[in-house]
Amino acid sequence: MKSASSYSANLIISAIILSVFGIIFIFTASSIPAAQRYGDLFFFPKRQLISLGLGVISGALLLKLPIRNIARLAFPGFILTTLLLVATLIPYFGHTVNGASRWLRWGMISFQPAELSKLVLILFLAKNLARPNFSGLHRLSGLLSCIFPLMVFSILLMLQPDFGTTFLLSLICFSMVFVCGLPIKLVASGLITGLLAIGIAIWQAPYRMKRITSFIDPWESAQSGGFQIIQSYLGFHNGGLLGVGLGGSRQKLYFLPEAHTDFILSVIGEELGLIGVSFIILLFGFMIWNGFKITERQTDIFAKLLAFGLTCLISVQATINMGVAMGLLPTKGMPLPFISHGSSSLVVFLWVVAILARLNYESDHLHERQ
């Protein structure tokens, strides 16, 4: 029993270590731009520290909430998230940055509903797939009931536009229905449809095509589309095995765009080298292993699907971000969980950890009674 209970502790400790690690590197990556823009070296790490506090407090409250009560939030959460995504598209409410309307802002407080959509979609799908009267994925009605929330979120996200989150949600949705026994014919049809949709999305937006061509050969557009990934390469190259030392990154000095957000792994690689990056990867791997061990212990289908979806969220998003930073995937504009600057992302991922810990707690008590 002690070993089973340790899964929750491992998850929570890993999340806190990654979050603190993130605050340190948000400071080292953003201090100079923050000082020049806001007159405060600690502008971004202070915001992240506040978000960490909010995430820990709200996560602790969520940890006390029975899973059956969390399940009841699926439909209200879907409605609320849909309304929030719609609000980002309304000029009075939405806040636009670099041509993307992804934020809601009230004074100094900003919120990105796309981050909440990840958790809500997983919760909604798990509840839908586990309901007693579910008609099954082999029936059109059952399949549509799973695809509908994904379609709603995807349409609203693409209007922002946010192709990266749409792609992530599609992968998670596909993973959850696949483990529930989605027929092979439908798997093939879904893959073909998804590839066609991705192709159309890329064709309709020239900047997406530019990202693809820059990914294939960044040196061909070294001063435009390929600039960011080349600067990321240089960061990893400069770091070598042991790194140049904490605070010693050169790429963060206006060479590497989004150094404290999407490409923070490159700064870590430059300052702590391969050793530092390997530590981050191993810590994520440790979290994911514990998440799947918690999934394995669940006896209720809803709990098992919820744990599986949440663990997939951590693993897929971390993999995509790292892949982009290392030039293995086209740029997606997706933060590294727990580490990249982003209040909404940090709070939501701390909620993910809290729910996984709650699932493990309840399975512990179930095994004790048996």
UniProtKB/TrEMBL annotation:
<keyword id="KW-0131">Cell cycle</keyword>
<feature type="transmembrane region" description="Helical">
    <location>
        <begin position="7"/>
        <end position="29"/>
    </location>
</feature>
<feature type="transmembrane region" description="Helical">
    <location>
        <begin position="74"/>
        <end position="94"/>
    </location>
</feature>
<keyword id="KW-0961">Cell wall biogenesis/degradation</keyword>
<keyword id="KW-1133">Transmembrane helix</keyword>
<comment type="pathway">
    <text>Cell wall biogenesis; peptidoglycan biosynthesis.</text>
</comment>
<keyword id="KW-1003">Cell membrane</keyword>
<feature type="transmembrane region" description="Helical">
    <location>
        <begin position="186"/>
        <end position="205"/>
    </location>
</feature>
<feature type="transmembrane region" description="Helical">
    <location>
        <begin position="263"/>
        <end position="289"/>
    </location>
</feature>
<feature type="transmembrane region" description="Helical">
    <location>
        <begin position="163"/>
        <end position="179"/>
    </location>
</feature>
<keyword id="KW-0132">Cell division</keyword>
<keyword id="KW-0472">Membrane</keyword>
<feature type="transmembrane region" description="Helical">
    <location>
        <begin position="137"/>
        <end position="157"/>
    </location>
</feature>
<dbReference type="GO" id="GO:0008360">
    <property type="term" value="P:regulation of cell shape"/>
</dbReference>
<dbReference type="GO" id="GO:0005886">
    <property type="term" value="C:plasma membrane"/>
</dbReference>
<dbReference type="InterPro" id="IPR001182">
    <property type="entry name" value="FtsW/RodA"/>
</dbReference>
<dbReference type="GO" id="GO:0071555">
    <property type="term" value="P:cell wall organization"/>
</dbReference>
<feature type="transmembrane region" description="Helical">
    <location>
        <begin position="49"/>
        <end position="67"/>
    </location>
</feature>
<dbReference type="InterPro" id="IPR013437">
    <property type="entry name" value="FtsW"/>
</dbReference>
<dbReference type="Pfam" id="PF01098">
    <property type="entry name" value="FTSW_RODA_SPOVE"/>
</dbReference>
<dbReference type="GO" id="GO:0032153">
    <property type="term" value="C:cell division site"/>
</dbReference>
<keyword id="KW-0808">Transferase</keyword>
<dbReference type="GO" id="GO:0051301">
    <property type="term" value="P:cell division"/>
</dbReference>
<protein>
    <recommendedName>
        <fullName>Probable peptidoglycan glycosyltransferase FtsW</fullName>
        <ecNumber>2.4.99.28</ecNumber>
    </recommendedName>
</protein>
<dbReference type="GO" id="GO:0009252">
    <property type="term" value="P:peptidoglycan biosynthetic process"/>
</dbReference>
<feature type="transmembrane region" description="Helical">
    <location>
        <begin position="106"/>
        <end position="125"/>
    </location>
</feature>
<keyword id="KW-0573">Peptidoglycan synthesis</keyword>
<dbReference type="GO" id="GO:0008955">
    <property type="term" value="F:peptidoglycan glycosyltransferase activity"/>
</dbReference>
<keyword id="KW-0133">Cell shape</keyword>
<feature type="transmembrane region" description="Helical">
    <location>
        <begin position="301"/>
        <end position="326"/>
    </location>
</feature>
<keyword id="KW-0328">Glycosyltransferase</keyword>
<comment type="similarity">
    <text>Belongs to the SEDS family. FtsW subfamily.</text>
</comment>
<keyword id="KW-0812">Transmembrane</keyword>
<dbReference type="GO" id="GO:0015648">
    <property type="term" value="F:lipid-linked peptidoglycan transporter activity"/>
</dbReference>
<feature type="transmembrane region" description="Helical">
    <location>
        <begin position="338"/>
        <end position="361"/>
    </location>
</feature>
